[in-house]
Prior knowledge:
Layout: E1 7-10, E2 13-17, E3 20-26, H1 32-41, E4 45-48, E5 51-57, E6 60-64, E7 72-75, E8 79-82, E9 88-96, E10 108-112, E11 115-122, H2 129-140
Amino acid sequence: MSGSGATPLANVSCVAMRGRGVLITGDPGSGKSSLTLALLDRGGTLVGDDGVDLAIEGGRVVAHPPEHTAGLIEIRNVGLLEVPVTSAPVAIVIHLAHDAERLPLGAGEASLLGIGVPQVDLYPDSPVLALRAEAALEIHGLG
């Protein structure tokens, strides 16, 4: 659905896990593409790496692959890899931050196109980051 009606969002990645979008945000170099690769390895499907197109559909925010980079993911120090893509309703925002709380009281909220979506901040330097992201999706993500 790239093009009219879609709002481009740069410097984010998104993976569909069992039909639910995990939108990954963070500073440049924080590990967004690495988490994306790990989620792909765990059975996810790429929506977009380093950018997605967002649209409101049926009252939900849906992430679509951006036309100019659809199906491409950067593997640092290796190059670009071509993978299948899909669109997905955004169920959760995972924000990679070195100052993430160790034991938060619950999910925060991100506003995407004026719609609230649960947000969980995760410490990026974890060998089990993909597991934490999946747990956050299951515990806090929209259905």
